[in-house]
Structures are given as structure tokens and as C-alpha cells.
Amino acid sequence: MQIRLDIKRRKSAADTPYLQSVSYLFDDINETVATALTKINRGGYKDTDGRAVTAVEWECSCLQKKCGACAMVIGGVPRLACDTKLSLFQKAGFVRIEPLRKFPVVSDLTVDRSIMFKNLRDISLWLDEELSADEKSVDTAYDASRCLQCGCCLEVCPNFYAGGKFYGMAAGIPASKLLAQLDKGKRKALAKQYDKHFYSGCGKSLSCKDICPAGIETDALMVNSNALAVFKRLFK
Amino acid sequence: MSRVIIIGAGLSGLSAAITLAKAGRRSALVSLQPSERAQSVLAEGGINAALDTMGENDSADEHFNDTMRGGVFLASEAAVRALTSHAPETVMWLSSLGVPFNMKDGKIIQRNFGGQKKKRTAFAKSSTGKMIMTSLIDEARKYEDKGLIERFAHHEFIRLIIDNGECVGAVVRDRYSGKSAGISGVVLLACGGMNGIFPEMTTGTTQNSGDAAATAFVQGVTLSNTEMLQYHPTTIGISGKRCLVTEAARGEGGRLYIMRGDERYYFMEDRFPDLKNLSPRDVVAREMFFVRREFGGEVFLDMTGLDEEVWKSKLPDLREEIKSYLSIDPKDTPVPVKEGIHYFMGGIYTDINHRTSMQGLYASGECTSLYHGANRLGGNSMLGAVYGGRAAAEDIVKNTADDGKNDEISFAIDDAGNFGEPASDELILKIRDILLDAMGIVRNESTLDNALERLDRLSAERGYNDRENARFAVARAMLMSAKERRESRGAHYREDFPERDDSFKKATVAQYKNGKVSITFKALDERGEENADKT
Ligand SMILES: Cc1cc2nc3c(=O)[nH]c(=O)nc-3n(C[C@H](O)[C@H](O)[C@H](O)COP(=O)(O)OP(=O)(O)OC[C@H]3O[C@@H](n4cnc5c(N)ncnc54)[C@H](O)[C@@H]3O)c2cc1C
Ligand code: SF4
Ligand code: SF4
Ligand code: FES
Predict the structure, then answer these.
(1) Are strands B110-111 and B121-122 parallel, antiparallel or unpaired?
(2) Is A133 part of the contact surface with chain B (CB cutoff 8 Å)?
């Protein structure tokens, strides 16, 4: 099988990006974009104009969709490169591979997602005191803890931009863990942050709903958190 | 000394940073990628501690005995005693940080895991590592906010700074800007297992390149038991790596078989009637090798007998994974499995307080060789990483002081200098292939000698950079240790010496001096018994 990979490239943020097209052969229908990038980076590939393809910068770690490192825009949709099979684009005969657009580019497909971690610090997402384990919140805490901090949901969100006051689902989901686990009294400070940086800015269009590569049911968690953090406070 | 420099932000690095911060000590937490991407998030099955919540009369003593037996008596007793006796408080600490362990009637539920007869493994469905990591990351964030933990989360360890034989800091490079900084302080290596020595053949992450431990080795830090590679018996081949099928699948009732004529032969149940499918990993992996040699064909993991409730509440992720990678539903169809490199029992040599052979340098987590002897029990490595990180931090707090100097870290150096250049992919794969030929599940002296010769020839081919030379050194250490250990023990099985021989009940110790690797043996209690039961 053969496919043309159109990879968006630039050496550094200061350079003008260009598309480099590589004609790529593969024979396993389960082969992923991550594998293609790894093989191309081992060298020996030429692009369709006959120029040598230098190593494409990108990030990966687990290769089994559990760490969020390899998020990029593939075929126009934010996804994990290690969870995107080339055969998906077999019919079209080509696929475009670009970096996430909401974050500053470092080089090629690598972007700097530091803002996501800064935002979590900003909403004071931590426990001030130890918890006593509680069976009731186990399922919610589990689902919310699965967030990979990959940034795919931010990519499609009409209201998120790096540096803005609205922190998006990537902050909303982790917050819902502690909101579910904390007692009412201790929930207040976090609830306030949640309201300020998530609830009040979210248009609830749910563009982000089916994007999450971890398969987190974002809407269900949000309903839960909104009830705990916002409505209970308003109607108390 | 000022801040502590922690290389690695997985379970072990995070646990250490939090423990230091609680004691008011500052740390620089350095990792190639953020904690969310560390290998620790992949751990599925669970973490061991004799919490005794299942009415089986479990105890720390039995956990100690199982760990020693599983490791075939190659671990230091004092270290394992400390590990197992502190296991319950370690797991309860994690629970108090909000880890959503599976619970019933207000108690943490525990499951069976390989090599242990009692239900001792606490778990959070099938993502225990991810759950623990999320809670530790939240906890670390609190201290980041207080300025006690400073994160460098796209930063690479380049080399140790050594003054008169003592480690006084580390050179670190920002992967994004390409600029480096020299940071001074006590260093803790928590850089994970050496997967990168075996690309595509391990169940771990590509991030753990092995460069950090290899560099430390050629800078004079002692390694030990590097011949002890754990092959996990049940992995499936997916794009670019081996993907683990958790041991919990067998803990919940999964059975291994091979076709013998037209019938399914459940060989573990037949040949190991005591622990059956839950025998220690080395036993299972070796038996799979032998039955394949005997009957031909593939070994299958039969999980069709597990009921719906188990899939839903205990193994939901596993089922999804197999479906998406292999396009089969394990609920209806047995899954073909093969062994893959899963854990490095060997690594940086430390005493029971996690001090390495070099003054000023500590190590904890999978990069060390302290707790697991010749074979690690499932569920003991997360425990070793978390407990080890805390124990190292406690020793640092006790024995070093912060001078309070606020020397800011500035990444300004353009050329990192020695060890700055990466190893070439081509060489990495060549060394891997030489190692794989000799360091498999079944070994013997002639293939080991042959591999050493091939390494010599390869290293004479051209000049190599520092990291490439460090790789050669680690590869030699592995092969030479495997050669010198002329017995079979745990993960190390020698066809030419198939019996255990207790004159080898010692750690292999690898040292690098003047460009040469040497192997000696060290008695187990030399790790230091005196602080065995510190609390
Ligand atoms: C698929 C899988 C399943 C597992 N399941 C279980 C289980 O059920 N129970 C159990 O007990 N154990 C399990 N384990 C093993 C266990 O997860 C690991 O041993 C443990 O998490 C290791 O933690 P760590 O902190 O030592 O290292 P890691 O989590 O590997 O972290 C290493 C850190 O070092 C950093 N690093 C590495 N090199 C450099 C460098 N050069 N410069 C800067 N930073 C660097 C990395 O960025 C990372 O932050 C499993 C392992 C795998 C792969
Ligand atoms: S629901 Fe809409 S506004 Fe809210 S986080 Fe998702 S995409 Fe953004
Ligand atoms: S919510 Fe989903 S898409 Fe968003 S960062 Fe987390 S894992 Fe990624
Ligand atoms: S490499 Fe971890 S999600 Fe793709």
C-alpha cells in the first residue's frame, strides 16, 4: 500500500512553514502515523521533489495512546499519531500532518503545551489536606483522572486560546476529579476557580465531545461538576 | 548544596520531590516530557501491600517472603524488609492523596497477582499507574505553587558534574531552545528502565532512552545485576512496540494454552499445579519458550471464561485495547501472545538508603537494582518506585542541608559539550540486535561470547561519540554479567548451567574504568544492614 504524507514543516517558530510530501509504502493495515514518522526519521527517504527528508521533529512516548505526547492535526482533525492508522486515508491516497494550532510551535510537529500545565496551577488544582477514601466518588475520580493533557479538545474549542482566561476542557476534566472528592466545605475555593476559568466561558456547544482520544465522557463529567461547583452554590 | 536535582518525573521522581518539599527542601524536577507522559502512567495491574483487607490473614512478613522467593534470594534482605514493611503505609498515603483504588465496604479491594498466594495487589480498574500518577501530579503541583518544586519538563539530562569523585550537580538541556545549564546540588536519578537499549522490543516508553544511566555508568557510577531482564510472558505486537496484556488478565482467570495436535493444552495448569497460570513471570515465559519449541505454533491467552462483570469493572481498558489493535474481542476469541522485555531488575547499584557508589548521587525507581533480585513480582515495581523515591528523599533530608542560596538556573549555554550529541539510530539498532541474540529467555556461554566479539568488531569499525560509547559499555556490562553468572536464577536462565548455584548468591557489579568494563561479585549484605528497619 502506498500513501502520500504531506507534512507541515519548519525548523523553528521564526521560519515560514511549508508542506513536504513523502510517498510512503506500508504493508500492515494496522500501521500508524507514529510508525511512519519513526521510519522516516531513520533516514533514506526523499520527498516527491527528490530532496532528502531530514528528521521530522515530533513528540511521542508510550505508542499506545496513553500519554498524549503525540497529539497533532491529522487529516484536519486533532488526534494521537500512535492511534491513527494510515489505512484510514487509503482511499484519499494522501493525508496532511500538521502540528496542533493552539500552541506555539517549537519545530515541525512539536508544540509547546506548557500553558496547559500553568493553567492547572492557576486554578489551584491540588488537595490542601489529605482525604479519607470514599467509595462514592471512585468512578468519577477515575474517569476524570484519565485525562492525558494532550490538548486535542483545546484545538477544536471555539473559546480557548493560549493565554486567555478560559482554560477549556483540559482544565475542566481534571478539576472534576477533585470537585467530586472534596467535601462541601473544602470545595469552595476550587469551585470558584472552576466557575471563573471554565463554566462561565464554556459555550457548551460540545465541539470537544467526540474528540477526546482517551474517550472521556466529557459531557457527563461536566454535568456532575457543574452541579457540584456551580448550581449548588447558586441555589444554596 | 542548594536544591536537589531530580532526573525523572515518573512515580519515583514525583514521590521524592513531594517528600523533599514536605520537609521544606527545594528540588529541580527534570524530565524529557511532562509527568503525564512518563512510563509510570502505563502500569495497569496494581501495587502490592499487605493491607490484609481480604480476610486472608496476610502480613508484611509474607510479602517479604514472596518478594525474596520471587527474586530468588538475590535482593538484599534488609532492603526488601524495609520495602515490604512500609508497603501498607505507602499505599494508604497514595489513597489519602486521592487515588481512586477499587473499594468495597469502605476498604481497598486487593487482587491476586503472579508469584503471590494471597490477594495483595491494590488496583484502580486497569489504569492503576495512571491513577496514582494523576494524584501525585496534583500533589506536586501544590509545592510547585509554593516554589519548592521547580519543573523542567522538556529538559534532558546530559551528564553529571563531578568534582574530585563527588557528584556536585548535573548539566541539563532544554529540548525546545537547545540551550543548556549547569545546575548544582545533590542529584537523584529516577530516570526509569533502560528501554532505549532495546527499541521496539519493550513494553515501555520511547522516552526512557537509557542514555541517562549509561552516561552515569561511564562517568564512574557502578551498575549491578544488569543481566536480569524481565520478559513479560503476555505481550502482543503492535505498531512500533510490544504491548502488555496485564497479568491481572490471568489473575482474574485467564489461561495459557498451546495447540497439541487438535486439542488445547493448558500447559501451566498441567506442569505447575501449585501456582498454575500465576507462576512467576520468568517461569511462565520460559515454559512458553519450551512448549513452542516442543509443539510449534503460538501460545494463546484464553480469557473467554471471564464474566461480563469482570470485563466491565476490572479490565475495561484491556478489552478496548485488544479490540483496537488486533481487531478481535478477547471475550470471544483467545489472543496470541509472546514474551516482551518488560522490566529491568538490574541498573544503578545503591545501598539500602538509595545512595549510589558516587558521593552526592542517589538513585531510585526502575533505574536501580535494589528490591527485585533476579525477578520482580508484578505490583512490586510501583511500590519500589514510590517507596524508593520517598526513602531516597528522606536520606537526603537527613544527611544534606540546603544553604538557602538562590542561584537561579539559566539556560544559556549553546553547546552542551560532552555527551551532548545523540547516538545514531543505526548504531542503536545494531547493538540491540547483538544483545537480543544473546540475552533472550534462554542463554549460553557460546552465544554470549559470540555477541561480545561482534560488539568488539562493531566498536572497532569507526569512531563513536560519547553516548554511543556509553551504549557499548552498557551492552558489554549486560553480556559480561550474563556470562559470569554461570548458574540459572530467576530471569537469568543458562542452558549450559540450568541449576541454581548458591555460590552465585551475590550481585554482579559492573564498573567502567579507563575505557574498560569489569565485572565482580558483591555479597548481598554489603548493601548495608544497619538501617534495615528505619521508620
Ligand atoms: C505496560 C507496563 C505495565 C506495568 N504494570 C505494572 C503494574 O501493574 N504494577 C507495577 O508495580 N509495575 C508495573 N509496571 C512497571 C512500573 O510501571 C515501572 O517500573 C515504574 O512506573 C517506574 O517508575 P519510575 O519513576 O522509576 O520511572 P518512569 O515512570 O519510567 O519515569 C522515568 C522518568 O525519567 C525521565 N527520563 C528518562 N531519561 C531521561 C533523560 N535522559 N533526561 C531527563 N529525563 C529523563 C522520563 O522523562 C521520566 O519522567 C509496568 C510497566 C509497563 C511498561
Ligand atoms: S463545550 Fe465548547 S466551549 Fe466548552 S470546552 Fe467544549 S468546545 Fe470548548
Ligand atoms: S480531556 Fe481528552 S482531549 Fe482534552 S486534554 Fe484531556 S485527554 Fe486530551
Ligand atoms: S505516544 Fe503516547 S499517546 Fe501517542
Answers:
(1) antiparallel
(2) yes
DSSP 8-state class, residue B34:
-
Starting from the CA of residue A208, give the closest ligand. 2
Q: CA nearest B231: which of B12, B471, B442, B500?
A: B442
User: Does residue A232 have a pLDDT over 80?
Assistant: no
Domain boundaries, chain A: 2-111, 114-234
The answer, yes or no, to whether any atom of ligand 1 lies below 6 A from the CB of B5, is no
What size, in residues, is chain A? Answer: 236
Q: Are B31 and B152 in contact (CB under 8 A)?
A: yes
Per-residue pLDDT tens digits for B76-93: 999 999 999 999 999 999
Q: Which atom of ligand 4 is nearest to the CA of A150?
A: 3
User: What Cα–Cα distance (Å) separates residue B260 from each residue in B273, B293, B294, B299, B303?
Assistant: 19, 12, 9, 11, 19
Distance B457 CA to ligand 3 centre (A): 49
Among B37, B51, B143, the residue to mutate for chain A (most A Cβ within 10 A): B37
* pLDDT tops 70 at residue A234: no
CATH of domain A2-111: 3.10.20.30
Q: How far is A137 from chain B (nearest CA, A)?
A: 8
- Chain-chain contact of B98 with A177 (C-beta, under 8 angstroms): yes
Q: In 10 A of CB B405, how many CB atoms?
A: 9
Evaluate: CB of B334 within 6 angstroms of ligand 1: no
Nearest chain A Cα to B44, which residue?
A66
- The closest CB to that of A130, out of B97, B127, B206, belongs to B97
Please report the domains of chain B, with CATH numbers, ordered by start residue.
4-227+345-417 (3.50.50.60), 232-340 (3.90.700.10)
pTM: 0.95
- Fold classification of A114-234 is Fumarate Reductase Iron-sulfur Protein; Chain B, domain 2 (1.10.1060)
pLDDT digits over B240-297, tens only?
Answer: 899 999 888 998 999 999 999 999 999 999 999 999 998 878 889 999 999 999 999 9
Asked whether this complex has an ipTM greater than 0.90, the answer is yes
**What DSSP element (H or E) covers B308?**
helix B308-313
Query: What are the chain A neighbours of B141 within 8 Å (beta carbons)?
Result: 120-121, 125-126
